Amino acid sequence: MPGLVDRQTGLVENAYNTPYHRKPLKQDLEKKLGRETRFANDANCFALSEAVDGAGRGGRVVFGAILGTGVGGGIVVDGRMLEGRHGIAGEWGHTPLPWMTGDEHPGRRCYCGRLGCIEQFLSGPAKNRERDAIGEDAAMARYEDRLARAFSMIVNVLDPDVIVVGGGLSRHERLYANVPPLLKKYVYCENPGTPIVRARHGDASGVRGAAMLWPQ
After folding, report:
1. For the residues 5-27, what does the mean pLDDT come to?
2. In this model, does residue 15 exceed pLDDT 90?
3. Structural domains in the chain?
4. Alpha carbon distance 82, 98 (integer Å)
């Protein structure tokens, strides 16, 4: 699911585009089903699936990036999902786009209420707005530079062994050739070599990761 279950209140948070935002979904389902349920953010589940036996297999630190209707992210370390103190680890989509240009600043208003979120530059709807304005090739070139800036922030902070990309925009094969060389402009090392790869399990990865919430 998008968002998270708040550990103190038990309510779903950060799932603004769903009917269960700020609702006790876990408790309600457990009452109806008569059994325990487990919840995790969809991007976290995606990252777990790809880290265990997908495109990130063998990497100790895996960052999973979903580029679709929204922009989500998940972190897996040593085969374990990293959620963080507040359950928001990996939420790069709701940080500002790094190194904004004058024509990008301050950015569009995001549904979270803030200006300039990465999601408003790198989601599918954002890319389509650019395409309609300047054409497909120019829009993709601009998208690739913005994606390189956003990924460079992840590399500078987390330095993952691999970045695995999912979501609808992951189908653009040119990303995997064009974005890695651009990292050198932004990453805090001379020759960054972070692999950026397409998810092995595609749209099924989130569901596979959710199944992995239960020990095998």
Report:
1. 90
2. no
3. 4-33 (no CATH), 42-211 (3.30.420.40)
4. 23
* Residue 210: its H or E element: helix 205-211
Which residues make Cβ contacts (< 8 Å) with residue 181, sequence separation at least 6? none
**Under 8 Å between Cβ of 92 and 195:** no
Local structure of 119: helix, strand or coil: helix
Angle between helices 174-182 and 136-157 (to 10 degrees): 50
Which residues of the chain form beta strands (DSSP E)?
4-5, 12-13, 61-67, 71-77, 80-82, 162-166, 196-198
Token code pair at residue 190: 């001379």
What are the pLDDT digits (tens) for 83-121?
999 999 999 999 999 999 999 999 999 988 999 999 999
Q: Rounded distance, CA 34 to CA 209, Å?
A: 23
